[in-house]
Amino acid sequence: MNLLLPAPLLIPLLCATLSLLGRRAVGVQRFLAVAGCSLNLVVSACLLYAVDKDGIQVMQSGSWPAPFGISLVVDRLSAIMLVLSGLMGAAVAVFSLAAMDRHRPKFGFYFFYHTLLMGVNGSFLTGDLFNLYVWFEVMLMSSFALMSLGSERAQLEGGIKYVALNVLSTAFFLAALGVLYGMTGTLNMAHLATIVRSAGNQGMLTTVSLLFMVAFGIKSAAFPLFFWLPASYHTPPSPVSAIFAGLLTKVGVYALIRLFTLVFVTDAAFTHVILLAGAGLTMLTGVLGAAAQTEMRRILSFHIVSQVGYMIMGLGLLTPLALAGSVFYIVHHVIVKTNLFLVAGVIAFRTGTNELMALGGFVRTMPWLALFFLIPAMSLAGLPPLSGFFAKLMLIVASFREYSWVIAITALAVGFLTLYSMTKIWNEVFWKPMPPASSEAMAKVPWTVRDRVCLFSPIMALALCTVLIGICAEPLFGLSERAAGQLLNPDEYIRAVLEEAVRP
Amino acid sequence: MTEVYLSLVIGVLYAAGLYLMMCRNIAKFIIGLGLIGHGANLLIFTAAGLSTQRAPIVPEGVTIPVVPIVDPLPQALILTAIVIGFGLTAFVLALFLSAHEVEGTDDLEKMRSTDQ
User: Fold this and answer.
1) Residue among A202, A411, A175 nearest A286 (CA)
2) What's the pLDDT tens digit per position in A417-455?
3) Which of A331, A346, A411, B76 sees the fewest Cβ atoms within 10 Å?
C-alpha cells in the first residue's frame, strides 16, 4: 500500500516532463493531461479507501527514520484533499480541451498545470514543515506562470498583485519556520507536536503560531489579507481560474487546519478565538464585496473569500462537529466553486465576455447550462437538498452548541447574501433578454459537438456530485466526522509517523 | 553578542524591505522582496543558534560524532531557500519587465484596471 503514497506526486511529475518533451505536440499534451489526471484521481481514491479502512499511511522517503528524513503522511483529511485535487484536475483538464486556445499549450500550459497539481498534492502529502514550504513554492511558481501565461494586459496586472502578496506570505512562512526550528530543533510535524506539548516557552510559541497564521491567512485569502484574490482570479483564461478557485486557497486552509489541530493547540483559547473572529469577518467582507461587483468571475472570486470564512469557522470552534463541518464544507465548496467557474468559462467561450451588462438570455439559448448553473449556485447559497445546505447546517449547529451566537448569526446572514449574489447572476446572465451585441458574437464563434462534449461533461459530472452529496449526505458526513476525530486526537498521527521510525 | 548584532541586521533588512515594497515603484518592489528574503534566511541562521563548535563531519569508522558539532540543518534550509528565492526573483523580474512594456509605466498605483 505504501507504494501508492508517492504516486500523486510521481504521476504529475511524469506527465509534466513528457509534456515538456512534447512541447510542440499539443494533441499529445492534451491526451497526457486527461489520462494523467484521471489516473491521479483513481490513485487518490484508492488511498482514501486504504486510509479510511486501515488507518494513517506513512512513507519515510529515502528510508531515513522519521524525525530526520522527510515523511509522507496520509490521514483522512489529506486523503480527502487528494481526491478533491484529483477530481478537479481531471474535470478542468477535460474542460481545457475545448476552452484553452492552441497557443498556450505550446508555451507550457500543460507543463505548469501538472506541476501545479504536483505542488498541491505535495502540500497535502508531506509531514514535514520545511517540505511543506517547498511544495508551497512549487505550487506558487506554477500558479504564477499559469496566471501570466499569454501576457495579456489584465493578466499581467492581476499577476503582479497575486505574485506580490503570495511571495510575502512565503517569506512570513519561512521566517516563522526558522523561529520554530530554533525553539524546538525539529521540522517533522508529528515530532513538533510532541515537543510543543512539553515546551517551556509557551508565550513565544503563541507568537510563532500567529506568524504562521498570517502566512497561511494570506494564502487562504482570509480577512484582512484577501485583496490579491479578487484582483487577480478573473484575469487568466477560464480553465486556469477554475483550477485556482477550486484548489489554491484550500491548500492554505488545509495548512491552517493541519497546524492548528496538530501543533498549535496549547493556547487554543487565544489563537482559535482569533481564527474565529477572522472567519466571521472573512465571510462578511467577501459577501459584501461580491454585492458591489458586476463581472461574473469577480462576483465568484469574492465568494471564494466569503466561503473560506466558513471553513476557518469550523477550525476556530474546534469541536468534533465543527471540524467535521469544515471538512464537509471544503469538499462541497471545491466541487461547487470549480463548477461555477466552469459555467462562467462556457459563457466566456460563447460570448467572449463575463460582464453582466453584456450578457443575457441564456435560459433560452442554453437551457441546460442554466440548469447546471442553478445547481451549484443554489448549493453555494445553502438551499436544501444540495450539498451546501448540509455543510452550513453542520457548522451552524456546532456554533449554537458552543453558544457562539455571533458567528452563527453571521454565517446565516452571509448565506442569505450569497443567495442575493447568485440571483443577481441568474437575472443578469440567464433571465434578462440578450443584448444584440453578444448574440452576434455568439453567432460568430463555432460551437461544435466536440466543444459541447468537452465543456459540458465536467460541468455535468461536478453538478452530479453536488446533487449526490446533497441527497445522500450520510457517507460523506460519516467520513468527515471520522476525519475530524483523527484531527482532534493527534496521538494516532504522531504514533503512525514516529513509530514507523523505530521499526527496522 | 553576535546574536544581538544579527538580530538588529535582520530587523533593518525587514524594515527596509517592507518600506521598499510599499514604494509603488516596480524596481524598488523587487529589491524590497530580495531584502526580505535575506532577512528571513538570516533569521533562520540566527534563530537556530550560533555556535563555535566543529564542522558537522563524522570521522570514518564511527556512526555518531565524537566531539560536539554544529547543527548542519539550518544551513541546508537556507541553501534551499536561497535557490528558491533566486528562481522567484528571476520570475518576478521577467513578469515586471513585461508588465512595464505593456503598461508603459513603472508606477504600481497606475496598474489598477483589475481592481475596478
Assistant:
1) A411
2) 999 999 999 998 888 888 888 888 888 888 888 889 999
3) B76
| Spatial distance between the Cα atoms of A232 and A219, rounded to a whole number of angstroms | 13
Question: Which residue in the set A130, A148, A232 is minimally distant from B114, CB to CB?
Answer: A232
- Closest partner residue to B99 (CB to CB) among A133, A160, A179 is A160
Q: How far apart are CA A135 and CA A67, in angstroms?
A: 19
Nearest to A279 by CA among A336, A217, A333: A217
The answer to whether the beta carbons of residues A177 and A130 sit under 8 Å apart is yes
Residue of B nearest to A152 (CA): B102
Which residue in the block uniquely carries the three cell numbers 446533497? Answer: A470
Q: What is the Cα Rg of chain A in Å?
A: 22
Q: Which three cell numbers stand for residue B116?
A: 475596478
A30-80 tens-digit pLDDT: 999 999 999 999 999 999 999 998 888 888 887 788 788 888 999 999 999
Q: Given an 8 Å threshold on Cβ–Cβ distance, is B36 in contact with A168?
A: yes
Q: Which fold has domain B2-51+71-110?
A: Helix Hairpins (1.10.287)
Q: How far is B4 from chain A (nearest CA, A)?
A: 15
Whether the CB of B108 is below 8 Å from some CB of chain A: the reply is: yes
Residues of B in contact with A187 (CB under 8 A): 73
- The radius of gyration of chain B's CA atoms, rounded to the nearest angstrom, is 20
Q: How many Å lie between the alpha carbon of A193 and the closest alpha carbon of chain B?
A: 18
Q: pLDDT confidence of B103, banded at 50, 70, 90?
A: confident
Place of cell 484550500: A250
Contact A114, A19 (CB under 8 A): yes
What is the pLDDT at residue A502? Answer: 47
Please report residues of A whose CB lies closer than 8 A to that of B49. 182
Q: How far is B12 from chain A (nearest CA, A)?
A: 15
* Sequential DSSP letters for A69-107: SPEEEE-HHHHHHHHHHHHHHHHHHHHHHHHS-SHHHHT
Chain A contact present for B6, CB below 8 A: no
Collapse the DSSP code of A206 into the 3-class scheme (helix H, G, I; strand E, B; otherwise coil) and give the result: helix
- Segments of chain A with pLDDT less than 70: 1, 500-504
- pLDDT score at A12: 94
Mean pLDDT across B60-82? 85
The single-letter code of the amino acid at A208 is: V
What's the pLDDT at B116?
Answer: 55
Return the H-helix or E-strand segment holding A60.
strand A57-60
* Nearest partner of A493 among A191, A121, A53, judged by Cα: A191
% of chain B residues with pLDDT over 90: 34
Nearest Cβ partner of A167 from B41, B88, B99?
A: B88
Q: For residue A504, what pLDDT is reported? A: 40
User: Mind telling me how many Å the CA of B18 is from chain A's nearest CA?
Assistant: 9
Closest CA to A237 of A351, A341, A86, A119: A341
ipTM of this complex prediction, to 2 decimal places: 0.91
| Closest Cβ–Cβ partner in B29, B41, B112 for A164 | B29
